Amino acid sequence: MGDRMVALVTGCAKGGIGHEYCKALAERNCRVFASDIPRRMKDMLELESSHGVEALELDVTSDESVVSAIEGIISKYGRIDVLINNAGIGSVGPLAELPLEAIRKAWEINTLGQLRLVQKVVPHMAARRSGNIVNVGSVVGTVPTPWGGSYCSSKAAVHAMTDALRLELRPFGINVIKVVPGAIRSNFGSATTEKLGAHGWSLYRPFAEAIAERGRASQGAKSTDAATFARHVVSKVLSPRPPRQIVFGHMTGLFAVLTWSPLWVRDLFFSNRFGLNRKL
To answer: Could you cite one Gene Ontology molecular function of this protein (predicted)?
Structure first.
């Protein structure tokens, strides 16, 4: 097998950031496993043919699926050096009306899905006293926005979980890296907007367009290209001393300012941005 690192990436549908992580890892001579749910396996064909990436069925909400995928990699190559917990879904809508089922699904995939992978891969990494675990959060996990409370809270939990894991896994030689993307151009925004059609707001019907605008917010003309973002993250993760945190992408500067701003400043900014500066 030589010295080639073995990497597993979750959520690798074509058009998404995970797809680009796989390309960037393959370009750095890693053995890459691109994974996603069964109905998206056809999206891996390009990665297999153009970059030598191996496709793998993996549902992050299923213990059995996760165990099967990880054990399959271990049996073939003996180790997993890099895990990128990229799988995630958007969740947009007012928290007072968004169905709990939708919120639960976002948490199950975005948060518990990451922890499920961590718990299954850590014993293998700990046995070798090495490994890099990359958990993908979001700028809105630090500064939540209206109409995105479900998604924001799932990513805030990822941030807290990652900060704890970073210290807890240090004695075993495992690096835990928190990735905080800004606005990255991918299919994520369009997929999130499509889900809005399933919801008929009651109290918030007058805000329907503002809610839809929140769903599109990360996909503006100035958003960072997904390939550029992925290459930046991979270069940091594969460096001799990976950083604790990688913050990169359009609007990260704005959110850094908002992080340190008084709450009334944040409230004023987001109220104007997302149509909440009026009373009904």
So the answer is: oxidoreductase activity
Say whether 77 is catalytic: no
Whether 40 and 17 have beta carbons less than 8 Å apart is answered as no
pLDDT of residue 2: 56
**Residue 157 covered by a domain:** yes
Tell me, yes or no, whether 125 lies in a domain.
yes
- List Cα–Cα distances, 154 to 137, 139, 157, 186, 242, in angstroms: 9, 12, 5, 20, 24
Domain membership of residue 280 (yes or no) is no
Give 217's contacts (C-beta < 8 A, 6+ positions apart).
Answer: 145, 183, 189
* 120, 66 contact by CB (below 8 A): yes
Radius of gyration of the chain (CA): 19
pLDDT at 279: 83
Residue 188 CA to residue 98 CA, distance in Å, equals 19
Tell me, what's the pLDDT at 170? 98
Q: How many domains, in total, are found in the chain?
A: 1
Segments of the chain with pLDDT less than 70: 1-2, 189-198
Question: Of 21, 77, 151, 204, which residue is the catalytic one?
Answer: 151
CATH code for position 218:
3.40.50.720
> How large is the greatest C-alpha to C-alpha distance in the chain, in angstroms?
66
- Is this prediction's pTM over 0.85? yes
Range of the domain at 46: 6-273
Residue 32: strand, helix, or coil = strand
DSSP β-bridge partners for residue 245: 178
Residue 27 domain-assigned (yes or no): yes
* The pLDDT value given to residue 1: 47
Q: Is 88 within 8 Å of 109 (Cβ atoms)?
A: yes
Q: Three-state DSSP class for 16?
A: coil
